[in-house]
């Protein structure tokens, strides 16, 4: 599987799944743009890729900001001339709070980063891909949507991302653009710190329910993303790929 010469923007690539996705795409020959709000971690990942012989640049990006997303698209095109792959991965967690007790700003923050952020990444990369009549957009959902747990704002955001993915695949299919979603299961990443930690009650309750008998790791997700970004996945579009060890 080769991605030589392809240009990929990966949001939220400073840690966790995003970092592993960026590293994996780079290992297959893609030029990487690290679109990350945390400047320190974003630069570290870009440096890691460069030290391994890949090409990567960091652009500080808040995906909930239209201005920031337009900026990362424009700068990527200035640097690499085009964009072939968009991985809309950036996310956060605001804790598990019953809806009746949830502050409006807590709802807005999570929906803004996950759902609005995915919308903005798709909106502003599409003109480039439509002009090229080629593109791979990969969004990120979660097993939380199927289990209906992990915070109602989180569940709603991920459900919206899946709906956006399916609808957009129909809209842009005529331009030879594939749009797919990866829905990770119980993956060991820093986001678990907002849900009681990897050894917390939620984590302990989930692990025995996984038929494969283990937690997942970012590399379990990155391989699927790379496949969808490659020519091997060229006839897959509008799909949600569940990667959760048969948990749901």
Question: Briefly, what is this?
Answer:
The chain has helices at residues 16-27, 39-51, 66-80, 104-132, 144-147, 152-172, 201-206, 218-229; strands spanning 7-11, 31-36, 56-60, 85-88, 135-140, 177-184, 240-243.
How much β-strand is present in the residues? 15-25%
Helical coverage, percent range: 40-55%
Rg over CA atoms: 17 Å
Residue runs with pLDDT of under 50 for 5 or more positions: none
How many separate domains make up the residues? 1
Do you know the CATH architecture?
A: 3-Layer(aba) Sandwich
Query: What's the total helix number?
Result: 8
Order of helices and strands: EHEHEHEHEHHEHHE
CATH first level: Alpha Beta
Largest sheet strand order? 3-2-1-4-5-6-7
Q: Overall 3D geometry?
A: globular
Which class best fits the helix and strand makeup? Answer: alpha/beta
CATH homology superfamily name: NAD(P)-binding Rossmann-like Domain
The major pleated sheet works out as: 7 strands, parallel
CATH topology: Rossmann fold
N→C terminal distance: 29 Å
| Average pLDDT | 94
If you had to describe this structure to a student in words, what would you say it looks like?
There is one protein chain. By secondary structure, the chain is an alpha/beta fold. Helix content is 45%, strand content 15%. It contains eight helices and seven strands; from the N terminus they run βαβαβαβαβααβααβ. The protein has helices spanning 16-27, 39-51, 66-80, 104-132, 144-147, 152-172, 201-206, 218-229; strands spanning 7-11, 31-36, 56-60, 85-88, 135-140, 177-184, 240-243. Strand 1, helix 1 (16-27) and strand 2 (31-36) form a beta-alpha-beta unit. It starts with 6 loop residues before the first strand and ends in a 5-residue tail after the last strand. The model has no long low-confidence stretch (mean pLDDT 94).
């Amino acid at each position: 599987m080769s991605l030589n010469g392809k240009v990929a923007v990966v949001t939220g690539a400073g840690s966790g799944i995003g970092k592993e996705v960026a590293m994996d795409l780079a290992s297959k020959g893609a030029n990487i743009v690290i679109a990350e709000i945390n400047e320190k971690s974003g630069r570290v990942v870009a440096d890691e890729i460069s030290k391994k012989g890949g090409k990567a640049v960091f652009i500080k990006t808040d995906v909930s900001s239209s201005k920031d997303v337009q900026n990362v698209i424009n700068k990527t095109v200035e640097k690499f001339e085009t964009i072939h792959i968009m991985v809309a991965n950036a996310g956060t967690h605001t804790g598990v709070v019953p809806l009746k007790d949830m502050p409006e700003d807590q709802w807005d923050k999570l929906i803004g980063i996950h759902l609005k952020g995915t919308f903005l990444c798709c909106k502003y990369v599409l003109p480039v891909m439509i002009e090229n009549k080629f593109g791979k957009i990969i969004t990120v959902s979660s097993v939380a949507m199927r289990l209906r747990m992990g915070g109602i704002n989180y569940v709603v955001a991920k459900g919206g991302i899946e709906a956006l993915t399916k609808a957009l695949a129909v809209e842009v299919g005529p331009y030879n653009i594939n749009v797919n979603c990866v829905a990770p299961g119980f993956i060991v990443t820093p986001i678990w710190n907002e849900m009681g930690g990897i050894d917390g009650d939620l984590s302990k309750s989930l692990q025995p329910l996984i038929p494969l008998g283990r937690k997942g790791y970012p590399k379990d997700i990155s391989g699927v993303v790379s496949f969808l970004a490659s020519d091997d996945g060229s006839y897959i579009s509008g799909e949600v790929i569940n990667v959760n060890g048969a948990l749901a």
